[in-house]
Design a protein that fits this description.
It is built from twelve helices and six strands. It is mainly alpha-helical. The chain is flat, with a radius of gyration of 52 Å. GO terms for molecular function: RNA binding.
Amino acid sequence: MAAPRKAESGQEAPASKGRSKKKAVDESELLTVPDGWKEPAFTREDNPRGLLEESSFATLFPKYREAYLKECWPLVQKALNEHHVNATLDLIEGSITVTTTKKTFDPYMIIRARDLIKLLARSVPFEQAVRVLQDDTACDIIKIGSLVRNRERFIKRRQRLIGPKGSTLKALELLTNCYIMVQGNTVSALGPFNGLKEVRKVVLDTMKNIHPIYNIKTLMIKRELSKDPELRTQSWERFLPQFKHKNLNKRKEPKKKNVKKEYTPFPPPQPENQVDKELASGEYFLKESQKKRKRVEEIKAKQAEAVRRRQEERNKAFIPPKEKLVVKPKKASTETKIDIEAIKEKVKKAKKKKLGALPVEEVKLKIAADEKKKKKKK
């Protein structure tokens, strides 16, 4: 009886695995977020006792922002007081400070207030910066000043990000649903989390000398693909363009290349001195008078060679030039002979013809003759 029980237990095991897989699939389907779903707002009921510690953040702002901040400061205080956060503007130090109070119930509100004052210091208008206090909006301040060393190159790439009359920046804002502000050495972006991720990628790629038009094209394709419900679960790699980086300006090679010699551990051979040369030629064993005679003979041989060369140069003027071969004229063929008699006849006929206009009498006679001919024909 033990054997069949074991078999039964073995048969039941795979069935339980199949059920667990089905359950896992069902759970993954349940994890999908429906369209238009929003997380419920954080209220006082979620944190009735408030915060135990006081938190504060401060940021400095440039001198040129002082006038604008003075103007919009009552609106900033009003927006932060709704969430029970205090804000102070110090014009002497040039700083803004935000602090929590005993009534503050949202612990993350101080972080949002910190982002608000950072954006205001980075030349973002209050109407846009105040959106950070909403739950579905975040901000990202991208530092681009240290990404490019050359200042002129940095300015060109920053201008490329903005585009002619701000067209590139406007296209990015429409595709990512973010507000983008390029100011000095930073780029301030404000919008949904997915959009901020795309903005950061485009900005960093532009600073790495990748034109923003490539990323804009990719974003446009992604936007169209997201509208199709069937393609949401599929990979989009086959639809997205693949841009290859090409190095067009190749480094020119120098005309003169310094080729390094192969390293050898042995030193170069010593140059021969005068004694070694005389020993090799056998002059060392000659007497002084013999050496002198040999030197005189060498000088005379050189002189004779020089005289011979000079004489050859002089004789070149007396050498007659080569005469050109005389080419005999070919006999004219019978086919190309000129008919003289025919030419004579043509000349005689031309002489008979009267040049200039006909006299009046001859013209009248000719007209009368023509009229007679016409009458006969009729």
